[in-house]
Each structure stands twice: as C-alpha cells, then as structure tokens.
C-alpha cells in the first residue's frame, strides 16, 4: 500500500495526471522561491515589491490566462489552472487574486467578448505579463447588485461611429492602480443593449485609479478605486460580442472557479503550519499534538480540506468536459471559502499567541479569506443562487 500522507489522507494525488503534477510542482517552486520569502513583509507593509517584475515572472511560466487558447495563452486545462490557483494561494490570496483578475476577469472578458483587434492588441502582452489588467464591476453603492450600477457610457453624437464618453466610479478594484488596461462595465442609454463592457487603456485622459489604503485583509494586493471622469473612447472600445449583465457575470464564473481551488491553498498552508507546530510545541510536559482536543481539531480541518479538494477536482473535471454550470461553481465557492476560513481560524487557535504573529501564515490567510468570502459574490449571494436553483424561486429582491 502507498504510505499515508498526512496532508493528503485520502490519496487524492493518485487522481492527478503526471502533467497536472508537473504544473503544480512548477508553480509551487516559483512561489517558494519568488513569493514565500517576502510575502509576510509585503503584507505588513501593504505593498508588493516590484509588482511588474512579479507579473512578468508569472507570465513567463504561462500562468496568466493559462486556461485560454491562442493569443500567447498557455491553453492548459481547467484542472491545471485550479492546481495553480491552489499553489498561489498557499502563498497568499493576494498573489492568486492578481493572477485571477488578470487571467479570469480582464483577459477572459477580452478573449470571450472582445473584437479581433482587442484580442490582438492586449492578450499576447497580458499573457506575457507585459501589460496588467483590471476588471471594474463593483461601485461604491452597488456591490452584490451590479445590475443597478450608475457608471454611464453615452455616445458623443449619432451613429455607430460616434465616440463613447464614460462617467462614474468603480470601487474595490484589484490591480487598478497598476493596470495598463481596465475592462469597465457601464450602463448605456440603449435599452436594447443595457450594460456593456469597455476596454479602457488606463492612460486615457479622465481615468484615474487611486489606491485604497488601510485594508486589514489582502494587504499583499493592490486594491483601487476607478474614477471615470468624461473618459472619451473610440466607438470600437466597446466589447462587441455581449450586452447585458450576463457579460460580467460570465467572467465571474471563471474567477469563482479559480477560488474554489485557491481557497484550499490558504487552508493547506494553515493546516500544515498547525500540524508542524503541534508536533513541536510542548505544554504540560508533552507535545500539544498529543492532546485529544488538538488531534480532533487537526482531523476536522483535514476532513474539510480533503472534501473541499475532492469537490474542486470534481468541478475541474466537469469544467474540462464542458459540463460545469454556474450554480455548481457557486456551490464550490460557497463551501470551499467558508471551510477554508474555518480551517485557518482553527489553525490559529492551535498556534496560540504565536498564531497572531506574521512569523506564521495562519492569521494572514484567515484575514485574506475575509475578502475572499465577500468578493466574487458573497456567501449570501451564492446561497441565494443555490436556493433559486433548488426551489425555482429567486429571493434576491
Ligand atoms: P439575473 O437577472 O439573475 O441575471 C442577469 C443576466 O445574467 C445571466 N446570468 C449569468 N450569466 C452567466 N453566468 C452567471 N453566473 C450568471 N448569472 C446570471 C442571466 O441569465 C441573465 O441573462 P439574460 O440574457 O437573461 O439577461 O441578475 P440579477 O440582477 O438578479 O443578479 C443575480 C446575482 C445576484 C446572482 C448577480 O448579480 C451576482 O452574482 N451578484 C454578485 C456580484 C459579484 O459577484 N461581484 C463580483 C465583482 S468582481 C470581483 O469581486 C473580483 S475580486 C477578484 C479577485 O481579486 O480575485
Ligand atoms: P454589499 O453588496 O453591500 O453587501 C453587504 C452585505 O449585505 C453582504 O453580507 C451581502 O451578502 C448582504 N446582502 C446584499 N444583498 C443581499 C440580499 N439580497 N440578501 C441577503 N443578503 C444580502 N469588485 C470588482 O468589480 N472588481 C474587483 O477586482 C474586485 N476586487 C475586490 C478586492 C477586494 C479586496 C474586495 C474586498 C472586494 C473586491 N471587489 C471587486 C468587490 C466585491 O466584489 C464586492 O465587495 C462584493 O461583490 C460585495 O459587494 P459590497 O462589498 O458592496 O457588499
């Protein structure tokens, strides 16, 4: 029999192909060398050193838009993308966020709904990490209900060739301040189309992206406000292939899928830290791992981690087969983020006072997961998505 692996008690590794394990190993290596030694310091200072250099390294490993085909993207499977998200988030949710927003939101929006010119202009540079993207949906007054957004796009003149003018504000936008291009969703006056997406070079006059400071979560991640003050764009800046809320929501399916896996990375890192600490820390004359209450915590953490991983892998295989429904992504995001947060908090208790120190990853992960619990659809929104799917009755409003 293969040996029992404390961090893979059900032997899930055996369900992965050699290629999938190779992707996982290369991402883990990059994280251990490039991110892990610095990430607590970045978190403490609220600043990633040389973010552009980091993005280029992520690009050179093929991690940006890695599950997209063509235009310089790596064309890997959804399962490989998931495994990469898990390894990135085992380092820090902020690094996974950077990659999610670049690949699953900004690049995916252009790849899925953009014109050939948009794709040619942006995707190869974004895949290589030479251009950074952000995705502006949330507004100060409209988060869970993006359909009520106030940001407006109006035509300056008549006809299809007229410029667009964008006015409004977006809030809590990952990568905003460092982005070269923003995919911005705005309400139009055209009732036939409604909400449209716009490809906005961030150098366009009227666009600014002040950074949001004083966060107590995702501190190793750039989060910004987007200010759109009479931003004039050519007629062809609009994403031509989609209109309505389904445009941005289709992109969210992609990023939410990555979080199903990624959140387990934070959980695994915290579980590993707690297991190691419990074996070394002695109280009452013996390692705390020898106390039944500590063992119960470690076992329960591992059960939830293992169930979450099986769920992620199952959803990944469905996504690769083209059968994954948005409600099923909601199921995975809701469960895995909620359980990962619980695992990180329990790990924190095992580390006692040391658990609150940045010398250990556990509270940093737990604090990060507070954001992950809220962004990409809150626990309540995903509960209501599933409630609607089960009962046939929408309870959002
Ligand atoms: P509703 O009437 O249900 O739907 C409007 C249209 O959208 C379609 N649709 C979807 N399409 C694709 N994928 C999905 N998941 C979809 N859900 C709905 C729907 O079929 C309809 O299409 P059509 O053609 O009939 O018009 O819309 P609603 O206004 O009732 O809202 C539904 C609700 C609440 C589920 C939705 O608004 C929602 O998901 N709200 C949460 C908002 C959210 O998740 N925001 C995330 C912002 S981005 C972010 O957080 C990035 S953090 C990234 C990081 O750093 O990692
Ligand atoms: P609200 O929608 O105001 O919700 C507040 C509370 O009310 C929540 O508990 C919610 O579940 C509950 N609630 C709301 N409506 C209902 C209801 N009908 N029934 C029951 N409960 C309800 N957005 C982007 O567009 N792009 C990004 O890159 C991005 N990055 C982010 C990065 C960070 C670090 C964070 C924290 C957020 C980011 N967001 C981003 C925004 C994120 O998507 C929103 O915060 C999220 O959608 C929730 O919106 P809100 O914060 O306005 O909360």
Automatic annotation (TrEMBL):
Database matches in Pfam families: Acyl-CoA_dh_1 (PF00441), Acyl-CoA_dh_M (PF02770), Acyl-CoA_dh_N (PF02771)
Known cofactor(s): FAD
Domain Acyl-CoA dehydrogenase/oxidase C-terminal residues, every copy: 244-390
Keyword Glycoprotein: no
Acyl-CoA oxidase/dehydrogenase middle domain: residues covered: 134-231
UniProt superkingdom: Bacteria
UniProt keywords, alphabetically: FAD, Flavoprotein, Oxidoreductase, Transit peptide
Acyl-CoA dehydrogenase/oxidase N-terminal domain location: 17-130
Family affiliation: Belongs to the acyl-CoA dehydrogenase family.
Name of the protein in its database record: Acyl-CoA dehydrogenase family protein
Organism the protein comes from: Nocardioides imazamoxiresistens
